[in-house]
Structure formats: C-alpha cells, structure tokens
Amino acid sequence: MTVTPHLFIPGPTNVPDKVRMAMNLPMEDMRSGEFPKLTLPVFEDLKKVFKMKDGRVFIFPSSGTGAWESAIENTLAPGDKVLMSRFGQFSLLWVDMAERLGLKVELCDEEWGTGVPLEKYADILAKDKNHEIKAVFATHNETATGVTSDIAGVRKALDAAKHPALLFVDSVSGAGSLDMRMGEWGVDCCVSGSQKGFMLPTGLGILAVSQKALDAQKQAGRMNRCFLAWEDHIKTNDLGYFPYTPATQLIRGLRTSLDLIFEEGLENIFARHTRLANGVRAAVDAWGLKLCAKDKKWHSDTVSAIYVPEGIDANNVLKTAYYRYNTSLGTGLNKLNGKVFRIGHLGALDEFMVGGVLFAVEMTLKDCGVNIKLGSGTGAAAE
Asked: 248-264 vs 35-50: helix axis angle to the nearest 10?
C-alpha cells in the first residue's frame, strides 16, 4: 500500500496543506504593480516573528547558509576578529565559513551536547579592552545535537563588558518554533530558513537585521559582495520588489505560513513545542536511552538527538525505520554518525504525530535488537 511518508527529520519539516495549496498557482509577474501587495506585508510580518525593535528582514532564494554568508559579508571586513563557539555540525560549518571568508576566529571548542559557553564568552569579552572583537556568534539551536543555547545570556555578557561587538545568531531550527527576541536581546543578525519553523520547502534564506547592523554595512572596507548585497535589496525591497527574480511561489507559501503562525499565536506555538518535546524526552527516558544534550538546560524543544546503546548501529535504526515503517528520522552528523538518531519535533505537528513517530521508533529499536518494552515510550509521552 502506498501511504504518505512519515517525515520526522529536523528539516525540511512537514508542510501544512494550506501552505501547499497556496503555492499551487500559475507563475506570476514579479514586476507587476500588484506584487508589492504580497511582499510588503510579508516583510513587516516577518519582523513580528523575530520580535524586532528596528531594522529589516531580507529574503534570499537560498537555504539558511546563504543568510549566514550575507550577514558576514555585509557587516565585516577581511581580517576582522570574531568570537565563535563550536559544539555541533552546524556551529562547525559556521566557523568554517567565517575562516574561509577571511575572518580571524577566536574559537571556543566545546563538547558536543553542550552549547554556547557563557562564562568563557564573558571572560573573553571582558579582557578585550581594545574591542578588537567585531562580532560575537552564537548558535541558538544546534540541530545536530539537539541543544538550545541562552542568547539572552550572550547579550548579558556583552553588556557586562560594555562591548560594542555585533551579535550574530543562527536560529535556522529555532525561529518560528522557539522564542527569538531580537529587540530585547540585542541581536543584530538572526539567520533562519524557510524549511523548519516556517513550514515551507527549502529555498528561502531569511535574515533579520538590526539598525546597528545596517549602519555597519555602510562602513568602508566591507567584504566584496553581489548576490547577497543588502544595498541592492534595500533599493528594491522598499518598493516591494527584488534585485533579481524571487521565488514567488515560496513567498506565497510564506504568506500563508505567517497567517497560520499568527492565528495560533507565537506564545502558543512555543508552549506547544515545549509540551511535545517533553513527551519525546519522557519516551527516551522510558526506553532507558540518553539524549546527546548533556544537561536539561541544553534541551532543545525542536529536535532530540538520541544515543543508541553500545553495539547498535544508529544507521541501521535509520534504515529500518525508513524501509519497514516508512518513517524518516534524522541521521547522526559528523562524529555522531552511527551513534545517534534524531527526531525532529518542530513546525506543523501535534500530539497524534508525535505519538506516531514514537510508536514507529519503538518497533524499529526492537527490530534492531534494543531491549525495550513496547509501549513504554509511547505511554510515558501520553502521560
């Protein structure tokens, strides 16, 4: 029997029917006088998701990686010193990008399963009396390990040191599902993408930018840039257009996605993700397994990375779930390959869907030789 695949990877996430139908339309003229009626409200409504006090949001036809690169290229110069931390595959890739773009990285290399080291950041910033550090980078939600970091704590460290560095945040698997208070936390560039909390296919890099970052972009000596240049977007975005052909159908889908977000309410969305994530974590405990996240303070409400027992290959768990139970789970990345599988619990999902993936995981683990009691995890989650 052909049935809908059960997708529980941490992105791309499930796309609601209303969003899919909003994108199922003929191609349209992106230079018509009607197009700004779509785009201008989208720009303004995106700012509400990021809880911005000033600044603007850019939309690029890319994944979140394009938004990463745009944030760096528009605000920093080759040779600039930046403070970064590495504790998972995506924070690792951000460090790699910064180095390849010519930045001088002061790196805090942390254990995978932990997050942004606030004490280290505070100490480094306090000692940087000459303000050589031009930007501080923090991965809000490390998708590879299921770890969420304290962005408000990073802002406190900057403020305590009276440090003027820009604050860059990767919230690709956070924004739209986890609280992001750009204004309150003084975030200058927040990176996201369409394929996770925004419940769309991959294809839109979304970058929220503060006025402070916009001012930094105007300074001389910035990096060379073209496709991701803010100045080109500003000229056209203000009129409701783009400097090149935009992904019109994805923007139509984004309009509907934002409508769904506001209909439910951001605070309700955050509470739902916490409730469902707690259910997943209760199941993991009942199975006798452990999360990659080393402590409760690191627990992510959008993705759980789960260690398999010694002697079990997590890749076999992934294959069994996929081929026998039509269920996609997230793979272990980099040094975690073969050691963990990941359950993505973000975007458009409810209790029924979480119960379904836990049911599939229980049968999969049993098939793969893990000694668990069937019904233990699903029962704990339901409780």
From this structure: 50
Closest CA to 253 of 217, 199, 306: 199
Per-residue pLDDT tens over the stretch 114-171: 999 999 999 999 999 999 999 999 999 999 999 999 999 999 999 999 999 999 999 9
Same domain, 185 and 209: yes
1 located within any domain: no
pLDDT in tens, 254-283: 999 999 999 999 999 999 999 999 999 999
Taking the model in full, what pTM does it have?
Answer: 0.96
Show the tokens assigned to 305. Answer: 């990375």
Backbone region of residue 325 per phi and psi (left: phi > 0; alpha: psi in -120 to 50; beta: other values): alpha
- Would 251 be classed as within a structural domain? yes
Q: Within a domain: residue 155?
A: yes
Helix, strand, or coil here: 233? helix
Q: Where a domain ends, among 262, 285, 313?
A: 262
Q: What single-letter amino acid sits at 213?
A: A
The residues, ordered by sequence, that sit 6+ positions from 140 with a Cβ below 8 Å of its Cβ are: 148, 149, 151, 169, 170, 171, 174, 178, 180
In the chain, the number of structural domains is 2
CA distance 204 to 209: 16
How many of the other CB atoms lie within 10 Å of CB of 244? 12
Fill in the amino acid letter for 296: K
- Look up the domain containing 374 and give its range: 6-12+266-382
361 and 328 co-located in one domain:
yes
